[in-house]
Amino acid sequence: MYSHGSESLINQAREIQEPELQRFHSRLVKLLQGKELGHEAVDSLQRLHIILSATKYTRTLPPELQGSLQSLLASPAEQFQVLSSAVLRETLPLSGQEGNYTQENFIQLNNHAAALVLSQAGSRADLSSLCAQLLRSLESRQSDGPAASLTHTLPILNTVLTHSPDCLTEDHVTLMSKKLVDWLRYASITQGGGAPSGGFFTGTRSRQPVPIAELDGTVSGDFFTVLCVGQSFTEDQWMNVYSFSMLRHWLITYRSVSNGNTTADTANRLQLSLSLSLSHSFSNEAHKKTDTDLQKACLVEAVCILDSVCGEDAALVFRAFPCIKALFGRLSSDLSFARVLLPIAQFYLNHGEMAAVDCESVWNLVFGRFPAELFDHQFLAHEFLRFIRLNLESLQLRVPQYSRSFPNLLKFLAWNSPAVVDDFVDLLPSLVTAGTAVELLHTLLDLPCLSATLVLQVRSTCLPISEPGGRGLLSLDAFRSQSFRGLFLFLLRGEAGSGDTIDRLSTLHEMLTETADWPRVVQCAQTVPVLLHIFFNTVIAIADQKLLAHLVQVMLERSSLLLNIPKYNKEIHRVFSRHLLLLCKLHPSLVVDQSHELLEFAGATANVYSKEEIYTHVVWVLGEYLSGSCDSRCSVMLITSCFETLEAVLFEITSSAPPPGADCPVPRVVTSLMSALAKLASRSHDLIPRVSLFLSKLRTVTRGGPVAWCSDEEDLVAIVTRGEELWSLLKAPGVAQSVLTPPQPVTTPQWHGDTNVAMPLQLRALTNLTHSQ
């Protein structure tokens, strides 16, 4: 939305009449023809730009004004270059000047003039003509024209190639490749200006050439590189810098255009110059931080260029690897060069197998120290996770440390969840293996604890041990205590394999209670349900029956061992419930395999009030799949044991008020228990009298008015109605078994639950017929 003042200016610009606009053009032409341009010229150019950009129609300026604006592109003041370029981009070129790219167009080419030239190239043919003219200008000698023309040629050419790489012919590509090599190798090693030789009479002819220096101040050797410094650069030195900057883009774009001989020759010369550059300039340590940052950026670019060159010609791998290996040896102990070490790791991944080199130290550094010590570096986290995503298949095949490194990798997520959650949505399936699934599940559930621990780790290094006159953090004291050090060290472990989880999780959660409302911890907790869905969807495809049974056991155990964060426990229970159903539906025998654990969970009355979501689904799978038709191992004794367990819970919750501080059990829990008892009784007819007696008592009790275990009248009516339906079914055991435990052809689809068929109507009719009036 525009401010009121801005809207007023835009409206004025749109409503200006043609006569007034022509008078304004005339005044502006006279103003621009003056010797000095001041604030009035700036204001007028800004007003003209608003007038032109405020309408949807493109205007044509008078030829005289158009010429003045084009001349202004060469102004020594960049402000006028910007304004004139912006104005001209909003206009149509004069008739006959479209795509007219001559040597005069490039005499004073600069960034802003280049932007104008690009904006006026209306077709691919125009871009091809522009590229051809740019390349012709590159072939001219310094004496053929002003030197300033070349310094902006490569940037504009690079911009054109980004949007339309097919504008160059094969001959142009070959020519450009050779020019890039020449600029990289043969730049002069003296500064652009010179130092006066001394004396009273000093002038330009008496100045002596000054050698180029390195970042540490020492005199440069035989090569000029992008890291050389001086008071001023010569044109060929600038072209060296520009060539280095666009070289990787050039190699990626045109790696297959040139013929084999030309490509190989170019690659060889590039590799030689870059190898010498690495050993010559990059070995010096810079004195200033800005120079250090420049050095790191250039190192990244140089290694990436060598990687591209070796990808073009595999024979160069053996010549380039000693240089890369030496660079890794110098930088691996200094994590401030982490951004440089990532491209080195990329080089090892791409070419290490061909060169038969040992890459273990590289991967131990990348997947070990990087996440452990640099988890709070946001930009590195982005670069690191991007590196993994781009090389995921290769990492899974060639780097055994990758799949074991998830405790370390998840530190990026635990520290800055919103920024990297999309990366982990893509990466998590690759971390799920049969050997790591159980530990990974525990680790995902403990992510909020890891987030809190990382915060405590950072705080412990910057906060005093004791704060005089203030109340310290109990969690921070626990983190520093040797008694609990093992708990936190397990969360901070670097790789999998030291154990699935820890015994004293409840102790850990108690110590971290005060961290439950920390923003970083809350944000981390919000990502866990999403990742758990991905985990279970992945593990179902790779796990065997034994592993799935173990995961069911973990879900039941961990449902009560979670950090107490608002809404977090309920969300995790909801995820567990959904995937418990899916697992048991795909593998019904899991219910028999884990019958002891499931019954132990279902027999705990406290779970009815604290874990109603997952409790309801555990009861449902027991009633649905504890059947001889699902697993031949399901005996009458097991069915009876399950029946008695659920019967005891149902009797307890419907015969007394809920515990102090707890709400009444939700109706779904009660109806699920009743349905499960009815299903089990339909498979063992000796149990039918027991469940029928309970259901008849339930009907009698509720006739007496409100009950302590259900505070809502509508809920009570729904429970009683469900009980009457089940009671009516059980009066005809054969019908009950066919409805509550139908054979497989009937359960898919479930005809008895489909409201579009007659079965529900028949059930209601049967209820009315068997119901005693």
Automatic annotation (TrEMBL):
Source taxon at top rank: Eukaryota
Domain AP-5 complex subunit zeta-1 N-terminal TPR, chain residue ranges per copy: 1-272
One of the record's GO cellular component terms: AP-5 adaptor complex
Residue ranges of domain AP-5 complex subunit zeta-1 ARM repeats in the record: 294-411
Transmembrane segments: none
All residue ranges annotated as the AP-5 complex subunit zeta-1 C-terminal TPR domain in the record: 423-769
UniProt cross-references to InterPro entries, sorted A to Z: AP5Z1, AP5Z1_ARM, TPR_AP5Z1_C, TPR_AP5Z1_N
Full protein name: Adaptor related protein complex 5 subunit zeta 1
